[in-house]
Each structure stands twice: as structure tokens, then as C-alpha cells.
Amino acid sequence: MIIEQFNKDEFIANYWQQKPCIIRAFLPDYKDPISEEHLAGLAEELDIDSRIVSFDKGQWHVEQGPINNFKKFCKGKWTILVQGVDKFIDNIDYLTDLVRFIPHWRLDDVMVSYSVEGGGVGPHLDEYDVFILQGKGSRRWQVGLPSSFEENIVHPLLKQIKGFEPVIDEVLRPGDVVYIPPKHPHNGVALEPCMNYSIGFRAHTDVELLTGIIDEHAFENADTRYTDNKTMQQRSGELRPGAITALEMKKIKDELASLIFSKNAESAIVQYLSRQSLPDYDYELSQEEIEEVDRALASGATLLRQSGIKAIYAQEQSGEEFEFFVNGERFSTSIAMSEHIQKVVDCREIHLRNHFAANILENDTFSECLKALLLSGYWDYKY
User: Which of 76, 119, 160, 315 is most buried, by the most CB atoms less than 10 A from its CB?
Assistant: First the structure.
């Protein structure tokens, strides 16, 4: 379970969602893109999810951010954890490029943590896949296999487990990675002050997805009502009035399935999966700034996707429009421009003049879509 030479195809075939592994020197000579002081500064912010987990005098403690008194909570063996740092710092967002072989729509965020010697959150389970990159310092990782474990609630905000047997027991040093699939018990303990970068992937339940597409109003215009002329004719005269026949049950399920397989539901699924917690860009451009956007597009400037932005789309689309979503917001262009707009949304940075012919850049629906992206604040530009 130790990979010395990483190969993405072998990893997908043998490890992804199957078993944990250590990837040695995934990023050789890795240098931290953020300091613990900068991380602490993020933990002070009101709109950033953070916490301090500490073990002091035989007790576990958890303090939810924003943190305004580090001396009070950073006692004993402690760790600062900050979620979604990729949405605020470019060099953290770049870490997600390391795992671009996993579909981007599955990506959640990058959590960054700093631990003093002995710091950690204890043995626990997660319901998602995670790649944990070791920054400065070193950490001992123990990872086991799925089983039934006794839950150990050491604090109302901290669930741990008891009694797992590790199949991995290794020390990670800068540039090493541990990959942990869902429901695999694990425990990481800092052997010295260290930084860690956890690239996590979402794993929605079926019920969450169903609830999500309902919340996206996928079925608000669905008005088909149940009819039973044919099924009534097949009911036995001796059947009890309270019974639902197998044929009637099948008809009900078929009608529900037709909703799930509708075009509206497909759009709502993509819309729901695109939603994420993003900083408020608060873009209200002046007329002069809007005119500058027009000039930038006309000159074939370079477009830059903002940190933490996730634009996703259904690969197979029909009709006259190609649509994609960013944080639940819908954008569209003509279906003829779909290949070109996909290239834009899939790239972190793209120089328009170098990648598109003049007739594409001058296409009204394409240029209007690019303008909408820039005006939304999800993309920026440079000359």
C-alpha cells in the first residue's frame, strides 16, 4: 500500500474507493504555500469555517471559529483546521490540479491544518475520499479497513472510534500523500509542528441528491396527475379496497422515474452539484468597468478563473443551448459554441487570442457568455 512511483491509471484501477495508500514524494521538495500565521488569520474570519481541536489534561476540546483568542484555546496538543482555503488563496487552489484525474464535479474543497507536536483529532471515520498532502514537519498516519467500530463521543463536536487495527502505519514527510477512501478508519498524529492539506471529495447520498434537485425546483412545472383507467380494469373484484396492486405500484414508480429522467431533473442535478460556499465577490461594475470588459474581450485578453470556482456541465446536451452552472448560477451559450465554452470553463487560465479563431471570438452568443462570466465575478481577465 505504498506507491513509490505514482501512475494515475494504476491508482484508479487499484486504489480509488477501494483501499488506502501512501504516495511517496507526490510533490518532491514541497514548500508550504501558506504559513501557520496566515492560517490563523483566516480562522479569525466570520465567514470561514474553522475550528481548534485540542487534547489537554486528559480532555478533548473543540472551539468553533471565528477564533478571537488563540492563547485561550491553543493548549496542550492542538490543531487549527480551516475549511475551503482553496477559495481564498490561489496557491492552495492550485493543489486541486494534482487530482484533476478525478472529475471536478466531485471535488469539495481543500482543508488546511496546522498541528503542534502530538496534535490531531483522534481516530475517526469520514464519508468521503481524501488526499492528505504533508507540508512541513512530519505526521504519523495509521489507516485501517472498514468494519464495525464502537463510536466514542469525546466531545459534542468530535466523534471518534475505538479499536481499529491499522494496515498502514507510516510517517509522512513533506511532499508525501496519504489517500483514504470513505469509511476507512484513520488517525494522524503530528510528530513535530506540521502543516497538512486535505483535498476532499463529496459523496452525496441518494436522498441528498433527490432532496437537492427538488430544492432546485426541477419539478415545479410537472403537472401530470395519476390516472388509472387501465389499472382499474385489472383489479380483481375480490381484491380488498385498501390494497395497492403490483401493477398500480409499478405505474406510480414509472411516473416518478419519468421525472428523474427528465431534462429538467438533469439540469437540476448539475445545478445542485455546482453549489458550494464561495466568498461574496460583490461585483457591481460601473459603466466604465463594463466597457473595459468589452475591450478586454475584443482584444483577446487572458481569462482567469477565480480561486475555488467550480464550473460543471452535463457532457451530453441537446437542444439549441449549452448550459453550465457555477455555484448554482446558470450560464449558457449556443450549442454550436459548446466545445469552445467547455475549453474556457475547464481551464484555470486561457488566452483567448491564442486558443480561438477570430470568427469564434466574434460570435455573439460566445462573447456574451464570456462577458457574463466576467461580470459575475467568477472569472477575471488580464492583458
Answer: 119
Q: Which residues pair with 129 in a beta bridge?
A: 201
Selecting from 3.40.50.300, 3.40.50.2300, 3.40.366.30, 3.40.47.10, what CATH number does the domain 287-382 have?
3.40.366.30
pTM given for the model: 0.91
Rounded Cα gap, residues 36 and 116, in angstroms? 11
CA 204, chain centre distance (Å) = 11
Cell of 120: 490531531
Show me where the domains of the chain are located: 2-201, 206-229+242-274, 287-382
CATH 2.60.120.650 matches 2-201: yes
In whole angstroms, give the CA distance from residue 216 to residue 271. 7
CA distance 135 to 116: 13
Q: What is the mean pLDDT of each run of 10 residues along the chain (383 residues)?
A: 94 96 95 96 95 96 95 95 95 94 94 98 96 98 95 94 95 98 97 98 90 86 74 69 85 90 91 85 76 90 93 91 94 95 94 94 94 92 92
Please state the φ and ψ torsions of residue 66, each to the nearest 5 degrees.
Answer: -70, 140
